[in-house]
Amino acid sequence: MDLNLINSLDLFKIIGILGLLFISAGVVITNRKREDTLFILGGLCLAVYSIYIGDLIFIVLQIVFIASAVYNLVKTIREEKKQK
């Protein structure tokens, strides 16, 4: 890995990378609650990064993505409670 790349990573870039990793992991997870949880964590990390870079389109996208993941998680939990 190029040393300049390592030195150029600041806290917000690391948070953005974590967001990408969380969302990528959520895509391959088959458990719905874990998937949504990873999507929420990843979306929050990317929202922080998008605020840092000041990209309004990306900020709105992350808000919608997080809201969708929270909605799906709540829906899944409610469905599980009904089945018990």
Radius of gyration: 15 Å
Kindly state the number of beta strands. Answer: 0
What's the structural domain tally? 1
Report the principal-axis shape: elongated
| Cα-to-Cα separation, first versus last residue | 51 Å
Whole-number mean pLDDT: 91
Q: Characterize the biggest β-sheet.
A: none
Class computed from helices, strands and strand pairing: mainly alpha
Q: Helical residue percent?
A: over 70%
Tally of helical runs? 4
Report the uncertain regions: none
Beta-strand content: under 5%
- Helix/strand order: HHHH
Question: Can you characterise this structure?
Answer:
The structure is a single chain. With 84 residues, this protein is mostly helical. It contains four helices and no strands. It is 88% helix and 0% strand. The longest helix is centred in the C-terminal third of the chain and has 28 residues. It is elongated.
Name the descriptors:
mainly alpha; 88% helix; 4 helices; 84 residues
What is this structure, in a nutshell?
With 84 residues, the chain is mainly alpha-helical. It is built from four helices and no strands. The chain is elongated and about 55 Å long.
In terms of topology, how is this protein built?
Layout: H1 3-8, H2 11-28, H3 32-53, H4 56-83
Helix pairs in contact: 2-3, 3-4
